[in-house]
Specification:
By secondary structure, this protein is α/β, with parallel strands linked by helices. The protein has helices at 14-22, 24-30, 112-122, 132-141, 151-177, 218-224, 251-266, 278-289, 312-315, 322-330, 335-342, 355-379, 392-395, 415-422, 441-444, 446-457, and strands spanning 2-10, 35-40, 49-55, 58-68, 72-78, 84-93, 98-107, 182-188, 191-198, 203-207, 229-233, 271-275, 294-300, 380-381, 384-385, 402-407, 428-434, 461-462, 469-470, 477-478. The longest helix has 27 residues, at 151-177.
């Protein structure tokens, strides 16, 4: 069972605050639900019941357990698959202000699995005083935010608010890491995306991984931009790109087509490409379909499709029921839960992540949860990566030099398994293993990873296929 305890000082009389719990429209609004249906009895009366519609089939049957206007209120509810929820609120009236004290408890389904999910993803996000729903309640009752009984209007408003928050936190993260960066919107046939640029010189296109964002590259962009023109693009359904439904989409043709349209929009005929995880698969797809557009390809971190197996935290998203529960948690991501999720899965040293990186990643996760679910479902099943999305055959057809920069603690694929793929490429580039680094190795060792990428994309520099290069200090031999 998880639990949290929050307090707020509100510049509104207690009667107005109490109404936020008993007015169906206000209650649905601050609890970020689509609405209240099947109401039986007024919500300020004990034992009254109603159904809180969270999203589509996700519904909680709620019962008022305590109602003492305007001093105390209690609720309990049951959701899908045995999920349970309990809340008690105490209001202290100080005339024109109210002290609100709220305690919540919840239980996830699936016994030990649910308790593990609770410890790993839900409970870390309950530390401190942050509480998005409670803050919405405060904004509503103080008049700082208008309400609407129409769920569509609320959803649109929240989307715009979240977009603004993601843009703001992205700006803070990039300002910390990159001097003179710019961004622009790019239309493509499936929607619109964002490109982040910095530096001058030969173009280097960098493509982020699944459940990631273009700005995740920020610690590298600043370092690489001292030598190259760096372009980081949000893949569809990620970062600040428009939503994209991957269901029924051929991932290989989609990836090649999307990146080709981005290059055309930017006026880039031929580029070096670096891709992380799913971004690596996108880079392989582009290099295979349009070899004339790719000068070199660098796979940073294990590429998606290197093997069928997925880490448990990712694989569970492809399960029919658990996947929906995990995505529901992603929609409530916080910096604390993001650090917990990334620890050991995305990076080797989560303690090194900056506050700016964590806040941006958490808000971007909230924004793009549906897109994440879509691409995981299109790329994998409960058994792992779909066979048609494995990269071995595609990688062997790439004509450009292919380099690898991987962490020795990558949770997705070991350096040895990546090495067995690297020797199958037509033109092997450097194969670099970064000690004590994870799936996004630049968060663990940004200087070393930047040096390795620059060595890989420098013209005329190759490494014999049988050589594994240790870091720091990539040892490369001129052609």
């Amino acid at each position: 069972m998880g639990q949290k305890h929050r307090t707020r000082q509100i510049d509104t009389p207690a009667a107005a605050v109490f109404r936020a719990f008993t007015d169906p429209v206000l209650a649905a609004d601050w609890m970020e639900a689509d609405g209240v249906v099947d109401q039986r009895g007024p919500l300020d009366t004990e034992n009254s019941t109603y159904t809180l519609v969270i999203s589509g089939p996700w519904r909680f049957r709620m019962r008022v357990t305590h109602a003492e206007p305007p001093r105390a209120y209690g609720l309990e509810g049951r959701g899908p698959l045995g999920t349970r929820y309990r809340m008690t609120a105490h209001l202290t009236d100080h005339g024109s202000t109210t002290e609100l004290d709220v305690k919540t408890e919840w239980t996830l389904p699936f016994g030990p699995v649910g308790r593990w999910m609770d410890r790993r993803w839900v409970e870390p996000g309950t530390q401190g005083e942050d509480d998005r729903e409670l803050d919405r309640l405060v904004a509503i009752v103080t008049g700082r935010e208008a309400t609407s009984p129409r769920a569509g209007i609320r959803a649109g408003r929240r989307r715009r608010e979240l977009d603004a928050q993601v843009e703001s936190t992205q700006r803070a993260f990039l300002d910390r890491e990159v001097a003179g960066w710019t961004s622009r919107r790019i239309p493509w046939s499936g929607g619109e995306t964002q490109a982040i640029e910095a530096g001058v010189g030969e173009p280097l296109l960098i493509v982020h991984g699944g459940m990631g964002n273009a700005a995740d590259w920020a610690p590298l962009i600043g370092r690489l931009a001292r030598h190259r023109r760096v372009v980081a693009v949000d893949r569809p359904g990620h970062g600040l790109a428009s939503f994209f439904d991957y269901r029924g989409v051929d991932l290989w043709s989609h990836a090649a087509g999307f990146l080709t349209e981005v290059l055309d929009a930017l006026g880039l005929n031929r580029v070096d490409v670096a891709g992380n995880s799913m971004g690596g698969l996108f880079g392989i797809a582009l290099a295979e379909a349009h070899p004339e557009r790719v000068r070199s390809l660098t796979l940073v971190g294990a590429p998606a499709g290197a093997q069928r197996r997925l880490p448990a935290k990712i694989g569970v998203m492809a399960w029919p029921i658990l996947g929906r529960l995990v995505i529901a948690m992603v929609r409530r991501s916080t910096p604390a839960s993001t650090r917990s999720f990334w620890d050991g899965l995305i990076v080797a040293h989560a303690e090194r992540l900056s506050d700016e990186a964590l806040l941006f990643a958490a808000l971007a996760a909230r924004r793009n949860a549906d897109g994440w679910r879509s691409i995981v479902g299109a790329n994998a099943s409960a058994r792992g990566i779909l066979p048609l999305n494995l990269i071995a055959g595609h990688l062997a057809r790439v004509e450009a030099p292919v380099a690898w920069v991987v962490g020795d603690r990558d949770a997705f694929t070991s350096p040895g398994a990546n090495r067995s793929l690297a020797v199958q490429t037509r033109v092997p580039g450097p194969f670099v293993v970064i000690p004590d680094a994870g799936h996004l190795p630049w968060f663990d060792e940004p200087d070393v990873v930047a040096e390795a990428i620059l060595a890989a994309v420098t013209r005329g520099v190759t490494t014999p296929a049988g050589v594994e290069v240790g870091m720091p200090g990539p040892q490369v031999a001129p052609a």
